Amino acid sequence: MTQLHHTFHATAFEQNFSLKSLAEHYPAARLSAQEASVDVAHGGTMFLYPFGAVVFHQTDLPLRDAELAKLRTIFPELRVKVAGEEHSVLEDSDGTTGVTAGKLTIVQMTPKRASVIALTVAQSAAMEYYEHMVEQLGTQISVLVVRLRITGRVPFRTRALHRFIGESIEVRSEVLSVLHLLDKPDATWDDPAMDAIYEDLQDQFDLEDRFAAVESKLRIVQEALELVLDTARDYRLVLLEVSIIALFVLEIGLGLVRH
Fold it and tell me: What is the pTM assigned to this prediction?
C-alpha cells in the first residue's frame, strides 16, 4: 500500500500573464492554450495561468518565494498577491478516487491529473480575488445609498459617479471575460477518472455558485449606481429649471425697474 500527500499552493495577482512572454524566460516550459508549466527543484512543478494565477505542486516555501521573486523581475508591474489557496490531495494506490470528508483521493497522480487539479485551485484563487473586488464595490455603493436615504440627495457633481459606474462595468466585463475559468480542461476528455475528479473539485470549491454570486452582486451594484446617477441628474435638472426661472424673474424685475 502506497500513500503520498500532494500539496498545491496557488497565488493570484491583479495583473494577467502573457504565456508567450513567459516562454521567452522559461525556455523549458510546457505551453498549452490554458497554461504554462515549469519544472522546479526537487521534483516540484509551477503552473502559470493567463488570468494571473500561479500554482506550485510539491514545492517548498523557499522555492516558491524564489520563483515568485523571479516572476516579479519578469513582470515588474506585479503587486503583492491578492489571493491565495492551498489544497492537498492524497494519492493512494489501494484507495478509491473521489472526495471523502472534504479531501480528494486519487489512485494515481499523473502530470495531466496534477495539471487539472492545479487549474481548479487556480480558479478558486482567482475567484477569491473577484469576490474581494465586488465586496469593495458593494461597500462603496452602500455609502452612496445611505447618504441618499439620510439626506435625500446625492452628490451634485456626477463625474465621480460616472467613474464609479465605469469601474463597476469594467469589473463586470473582466469577470465575464474569464468565464472560461469554468471551462472543462482538455485533459478531462481523455481521462474519465479525471473528469470525475474535476467535477468533484468544482463542487468542493463551489466555483459555479461563487461565480453566479459574483455576477449577481455586480448586477445589483450596477443597477444601484444607475439609479443613483438618475437621481443626481434629476436633481441637477431641478436646479437648472429653478435657475432659469430665477433668471426670468430677475429679467422681468430689471425691466420694471427701468420703466
Answer: 0.76
